[in-house]
Write a structure and sequence with these properties.
Number of strands of chain A: 14
Number of helices of chain A: 12
Distance between the termini of chain A: 50 Å
Shape of chain A: globular
CATH topology of chain A: Rossmann fold
Oligomer: homodimer
Strand order of the largest sheet of chain A: 3-2-1-4-5-8-12
Number of domains of chain A: 1
Largest interface: A-B, 48 and 47 residues
Helix content of chain A: 25-40%
Structural class of chain A: alpha/beta
CATH superfamily of chain A: NAD(P)-binding Rossmann-like Domain
Strand content of chain A: 15-25%
CATH class of chain A: Alpha Beta
Chain lengths: 408, 408
């Protein structure tokens, strides 16, 4: 497996970026992490920290080298801001692939205020555009692998299963219905999700005009925290978000149970979401790197999700396992209270992914971590205080919300 | 007509913005122009100037007040950069509508270099997003009227006429073909055009989440220069672009004829484009302001174009009128060499637009202006030196290109 191909991981210090970097390093790639540590700085801004005591990046990297014998380089760089340094780095490293995690990735954070909306748009769009522009300038045949979200599809398409990026439709051309395949019409539910739909157009354009090879991974909600590599030493532990902005639903429930907080269901809990375990995230990214689209092929889009669940079913499951109370809060999001979701993910299955699905064993592993570090949780930060519109009430007690009647 | 409603015109010093501001002022609106004079600074960067000797903005505005008795306010402000000032201005003016011309609007300029690509993306997306964000914060019911482009549709849809923004398709839902209407799948041909497709997603999202009323005008290539109002005094004259980046095709041919330069047809000239006269531009914008979408209605999209022509037919027409030579150059764009284009524009016709179409009289008017100011043209700046890809040769002589065989 010692192929010595080089890979740049943008955002390689983050929740998905760090375990991906370790996985790629252990597979024998020469990995260069680029990060401006924005996620750690946002922790400081929000006044909270990862549930797990993550080490500073340099310490993590030294430990990884000691344990694995493999060196990962690190460049402190804001890719949305310092284009020249990014271009220079690409010219110098000449990577086979660039994995792009370097975006602000929380929907609630993107809705907090005009400053947060504007930061998310500015950072994500200029960052993605700078990468594409720099790849063109390099003249190199570099495969860009981008972490996107299932959220670009929207969740309102009753009865229609979600294809992998492209939708076959019939249009009337000169009075005859002809079949054409179009990019799935985007339907973003937050400023954050909107930036991912803008990214998709940047990819579409650069792929068409400049023949850049691009893979866009439409990922579901990630759960779990550790991977094979992050478990090799406590200093390699992965981050674990639990607070109102960055904590995603299943992990958040498990932490809430561990600290004796009610499980926070926003709205009816009838929202169906797609999920993936962090260990499958790193496997999928490795598979995507190994199977780039052909030269001049259109943008390759995978749905990176392995199962779907309704939020209230997950709350019920965690409540049964832990005895926690389930409480319903006013939904700060502007979304349908109930939705179906059927997601195609055949492409990764065909490449050999054997999905990790929800099991009590894996949930217990997360509960164990949550209990071990429960004293790092500030209960005042658990409830989301972002709202999608100023006219949505903030419900910190979970008393104003009544569970809406549920059809099935 | 003295309604004293206030309108902010963003980019009100530009080619479309200036005559629009005068028209709205003469219709009795209180107009506030916001501009950072970027277009004049780009003239400095490119080492050329408007064919017509336009006056500094403050002089134009004093002359307008003297002649019309109406005052237009002016705020020097970069809306992509100074969000706080924009928000404050909106709170202070409380406009009925905001007309948004404040974008970098030349496709060739957007392709010159990484710096130009990045400026176009950063300026256009952050500018548009700041406006939307500031409208939400104001809590006011403000109608946003945006100048877009026919170019978002792409020109490759053989046999399919271009609807006004939305496309009816059939999709298979549970084995049954159902009709749905989707935003027309965007197909941008340059970085500039791409930014307009990104704008469309910003509009889609803010309209859906925040109920902002938005009209997006998909405009064709503008020709002509003066309007009723700009003709009222030489100091009110409108700008006229002729050089390789900003000069659009028909106006450019007329200047080339006036200065004895061959008419510059890029590629086969088989490209079909949609056109509109500048006097219809200002009428359409006035109509759009008077007919806002209803509250909670989706983004209203008009095709702001009145006729279509093939580029080589226009070259032939100008050559016949002036005796100029037609010369074929390597096309710097990455596009189909021939395309059909059928454009729906029923919405403006229904609102009473009586289109100005290509006529010898109007062409003569432009030829007359071009001849009067011919000494302001630097012939070295006529040929576009932007290229869509580094592997497209730069053809300054028009000798390398051979006219491609034409089917019809």
């Amino acid at each position: 497996m010692e192929n010595r191909e080089r890979i740049i991981v943008l955002g390689g210090d983050g929740f998905c970026g760090w375990p991906t970097s370790l996985r790629l390093s252990s597979e024998g790639y020469d990995v260069v992490i680029v990060d401006n540590l924005s996620r750690r700085k946002i922790d400081v801004e929000l006044g909270c920290e990862s549930l797990t005591p993550i080490k500073p990046l340099e310490q993590r990297l030294r430990r990884w080298e000691e344990i694995s014998g493999r060196r990962i380089d690190y460049r402190a760089l804001n890719i949305a801001d310092d284009y020249e340094a990014l271009e220079q780095l690409i010219q110098e490293v000449r990577p086979k692939a660039i994995v792009h995690f370097a975006e602000q990735r929380a929907a609630p954070y993107s809705m907090k205020s005009p400053r947060h909306k504007r930061y998310t748009v500015d950072n994500n769009i200029n960052g993605t555009h700078n990468i594409l522009c720099a790849i063109v300038e390099s003249g190199l045949d570099i495969h860009l692998v981008h972490l996107g979200t299932m959220g670009v599809y929207g969740y309102g398409t009753a009865g229609m299963s979600i294809p992998e990026g492209y939708l076959t439709v019939k249009v009337d051309i000169d009075g005859v219905d002809r079949e054409i395949e179009i990019p799935y019409p985007p339907h973003p539910g937050s400023i954050y999700h909107m930036t991912k739909t803008l990214d998709a157009l940047l990819f579409y354009y650069y792929n068409k005009n400049d023949d850049i090879r691009i893979t866009d991974l439409h990922q579901g909600v990630v759960w779990g925290t550790n991977t094979e590599e992050t478990l090799m030493h406590p200093d390699l532990i992965n981050r674990f978000d639990w607070e109102g902005d960055y904590g995603t639903v299943l992990n958040r429930f498990l932490v809430e149970a561990a600290v004796g907080h009610p499980l926070t269901v926003y709205g009816s809990g009838g929202q169906t979401r797609a999920f993936i375990h962090i260990r499958d995230t790193v496997r999928c990214i490795s598979l995507a790197i190994k199977h780039p689209p052909a030269r001049k092929q259109r943008v390759k889009i995978f749905n990176q999700a392995t199962e779907t669940h309704r939020v209230r079913d997950l709350a019920g499951l965690v409540a049964r396992l832990t005895g926690a109370e389930v409480r319903y809060y006013v939904n700060p999001r502007n979304e349908a209270s109930e939705n179906e979701l059927v997601v195609h993910n055949e492409q990764f299955l065909e490449l050999g992914l054997n999905p990790i699905t929800l099991s009590e064993g894996l949930l217990q592993e997360v509960i164990e971590i949550a209990s071990r570090y429960a004293d790092r949780v500030d209960q005042a930060k658990i409830i989301a205080d972002s709202r999608w519109r100023a006219d949505i009430p903030l419900d910190r007690e979970g008393t104003a919300a009544r569970r809406e009647p549920v059809a099935a």
